[in-house]
């Protein structure tokens, strides 16, 4: 049964912004406006007064007075539902919950059960309000992300800064951002440095420091001083705009559970209607003391119980809660379907550089032979100042407070390294081929080093070496251990880096299977081989650029550091907004918690409904039990789904 949009404007809170909920409800943004509850309050007050007058058997409260009183009590909450049921019938969608509620409550009036008729519709209306509040609560984390959307930009035009809509800013324009303001568009920092709060984008509360020339992202909050940036993307192409679009449309990809329940409800609802007709009429042929009113009452109870509200509301809400909880933790799922698939992942394939390593060269070891380390590094740094190679950049990060040396007559020897003059000494900096060409003996210990190594000779004597290596991320080792604990038994590393380095990193992380020196198509072939075993549910983690084919081919493609990667956002199914591989473990845990709560709701809804339906058909349950089975179970399921917003997965 497709749950149509309820036209209950006076039953639902008003808001400037309407959010479209996955099951078709058009829930408003705020549930705090007391006006939304006035119709329910009026009906509730009149119902209580009516029940009291009935209880004390007040003389004037008889016949038409009683009918009119309960009729007025019914209208504020019942009229919108009846109207919506009629509109659905005109559109060809007959078997909706609105039809069921209308038949049950109007039927209750026909047989004289006025308080029950009002009560059923009242609790349904209150349930709608609670559902609305629950949806808004589930949307809270994602709404926080939506609030990051910048609404103005101070752009330098005609020798002055003017405030404009970010969507009108062009690439290459200079934008000023004051303290406490949001970065309006992606760009590079023109100021010397800046401190930014990226919590809404990455889930990390720790401020990040950005230096001149480095990237800044729209939605980050400037924390320290007035800064200037140069835009590198239009607003529609910025990372935040694309992430927002992805999050807003995340529920369009429904899980198999959701699709099954919706298909089931379309078959289930008409069956229930015809069963209710059968409960009313068939006993006439089998029961001696058949009383039409009694069996009609049982059928009406049957109809009230049968409304699948708890299922069509709480199941999408459960998945939506999972999506919201994940986004709060810096993990973006592109749809509820990937929450489902993530629960089944048992094989993880990962890239190396940028996934478990930082992707930045750092000095790992310095070995000076016959020289003081600082003096040795002065000579090396003087030479590397002449180079633009990434290794040179890593060496120049060495901290030395003493005065630097100056190199002269520096020449580059293709494929080997550098040769120059420092303090009247000939200095050679490069690889083993450079040393061999100059007949300089190199210690045999260097042959076992698999990382990048820079050899140094001073005045034709070997002076030492520096080992340069990519650094493991802080949480890389604990991630592998945690993955095994959550049932990911097979972990494989595939890298384009040379095999010796890949194997060493794999040993450090206790990864049993690893292959290096692979092209993108080689990685794809490895994943395709794993997919030949139908028992393997494969997740691939990569940077989303070179690994795009593998991300697309795996059951779940996960992009690390996707905030700055357009290809990652386009290709991957799950975006980890930080560079922390441990977030993958958290994504699995959130997915499993979501699925667990969804199945709890399914069992709760079906179990209670079946029991009360049997009791109702047998005349052992009243309309009040029916109300509990319908609205009560729906509310319990909603409260269960909302628990996702308070869970922690550390």
UniProtKB/TrEMBL annotation:
Keywords, in A-Z order: ATP-binding, Cell membrane, Hydrolase, Membrane, Metal-binding, Nucleotide-binding, Translocase, Transmembrane, Transmembrane helix
InterPro entries: ATPase_P-typ_cyto_dom_N, ATPase_P-typ_P_site, ATPase_P-typ_TM_dom_sf, ATPase_P-typ_transduc_dom_A_sf, ATPase_P-type_domA, Cation_Transport_ATPase_IB, HAD-like_sf, HAD_sf
Annotated catalysed reactions: Zn(2+)(in) + ATP + H2O = Zn(2+)(out) + ADP + phosphate + H(+)
Domain of life: Bacteria
Record-level GO cellular component terms: plasma membrane
PROSITE patterns the record matches: ATPASE_E1_E2
Classification via Pfam families: E1-E2_ATPase (PF00122), Hydrolase (PF00702)
Residue ranges crossing the lipid bilayer per the database entry: 36-58, 64-82, 94-112, 118-135, 267-287, 299-320, 597-617, 623-642
Predominant location category: membrane
EC number assigned by the record: 7.2.2.12
Compartments reported by the entry: Cell membrane; Membrane
Domain called P-type ATPase A: residue spans: 149-248
Gene Ontology molecular functions: ATP binding; ATP hydrolysis activity; cadmium ion transmembrane transporter activity; metal ion binding; P-type zinc transporter activity
Family under the similarity heading: Belongs to the cation transport ATPase (P-type) (TC 3.A.3) family. Type IB subfamily.
NCBIfam families reported in the protein's UniProt record: ATPase-IB2_Cd, ATPase-IB_hvy, ATPase_P-type
Protein name: P-type Zn(2+) transporter
UniProt gene name: cadA
């Amino acid at each position: 049964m497709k749950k149509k949009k309820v036209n209950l404007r006076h039953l639902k809170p008003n808001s400037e912004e309407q959010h479209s909920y996955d099951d078709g409800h058009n829930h408003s943004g705020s549930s705090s406006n007391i006006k939304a509850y006035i119709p329910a309050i009026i009906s509730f007050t009149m119902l209580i007064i009516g029940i009291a007058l009935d209880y004390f058997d007040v003389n004037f409260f008889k016949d038409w007075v009683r009918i009119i009183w309960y009729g007025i009590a019914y209208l504020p909450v019942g009229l919108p539902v009846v109207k919506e049921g009629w509109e659905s019938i005109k559109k060809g969608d007959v078997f909706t919950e609105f039809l069921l509620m209308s038949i049950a409550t109007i039927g209750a009036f026909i047989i004289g059960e006025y308080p029950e008729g009002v009560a059923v519709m009242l609790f349904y209306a209150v349930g709608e309000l609670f559902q609305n509040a629950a949806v808004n609560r589930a949307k809270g984390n994602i709404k926080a992300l939506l609030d990051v959307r910048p609404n103005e930009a101070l752009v330098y035009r005609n020798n002055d800064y003017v405030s404009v809509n970010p969507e009108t800013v062009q690439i290459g324009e200079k934008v000023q951002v004051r303290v406490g303001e949001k970065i309006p568009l992606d760009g590079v920092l023109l100021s010397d440095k800046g401190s930014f709060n990226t919590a809404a984008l990455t889930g990390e509360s720790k401020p990040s420091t950005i230096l001149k020339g480095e990237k800044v992202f729209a939605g980050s909050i400037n924390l320290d001083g007035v800064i200037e940036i140069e835009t590198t993307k239009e607003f529609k192409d910025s990372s935040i705009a694309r992430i927002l679009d992805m999050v807003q449309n995340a529920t369009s990809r429904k899980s198999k559970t959701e699709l099954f329940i919706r298909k089931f409800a379309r078959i289930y609802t008409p069956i229930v209607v015809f069963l209710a007709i059968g409960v009313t009429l068939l006993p006439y042929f089998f029961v001696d003391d058949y009383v039409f009113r009694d069996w009609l009452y049982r059928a009406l109870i049957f109809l009230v119980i049968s409304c699948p509200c708890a299922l069509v509301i709480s199941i999408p809400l459960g998945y939506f809660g999972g999506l919201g909880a994940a986004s709060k933790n810096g993990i973006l799922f592109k749809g509820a379907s990937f929450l489902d698939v993530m629960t089944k992942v048992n094989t993880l394939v990962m890239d190396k550089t940028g996934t478990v390593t930082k992707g930045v060269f750092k000095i790992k070891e310095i070995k000076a032979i016959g020289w003081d380390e600082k003096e040795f590094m002065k000579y090396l740094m003087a030479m590397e100042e002449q180079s633009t190679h990434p290794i040179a950049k890593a060496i120049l990060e060495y901290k030395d407070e003493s005065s630097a040396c100056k190199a002269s007559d520096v020449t580059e020897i293709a494929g080997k390294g550098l040769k120059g003059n420092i303090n009247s000494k000939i200095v050679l900096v490069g690889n083993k081929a450079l040393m061999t060409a100059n007949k300089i003996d190199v210690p045999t210990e260097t042959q076992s080093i698999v990382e990048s190594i820079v050899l140094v000779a001073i005045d034709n004597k070997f002076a030492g070496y520096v080992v340069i290596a990519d650094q493991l991320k802080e949480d890389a080792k604990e991630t592998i251990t945690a993955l095994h604990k959550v049932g990911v038994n097979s972990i494989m590393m595939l890298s384009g880096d040379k095999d010796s380095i890949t194997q060493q990193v794999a040993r450090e992380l206790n990864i049993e299977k690893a292959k290096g020196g692979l092209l993108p198509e080689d990685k794809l072939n490895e994943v395709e081989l794993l997919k030949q075993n139908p028992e393997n549910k494969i997740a691939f983690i990569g940077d989303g650029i070179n690994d795009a084919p593998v991300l697309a081919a795996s059951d779940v493609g996960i992009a690390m550091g996707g905030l700055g990667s357009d290809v990652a956002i386009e290709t991957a199914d799950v975006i980890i907004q930080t560079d922390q591989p441990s977030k993958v473990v958290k994504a699995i845990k959130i997915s499993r918690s979501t699925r667990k709560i969804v199945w709890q709701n399914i069992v709760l809804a079906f179990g209670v409904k079946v029991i009360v339906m049997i009791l109702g058909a047998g005349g052992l349950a009243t309309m009040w039990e029916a109300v509990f089975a319908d609205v009560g179970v729906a509310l319990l399921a909603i409260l269960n789904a909302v628990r996702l917003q308070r869970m922690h997965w550390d």
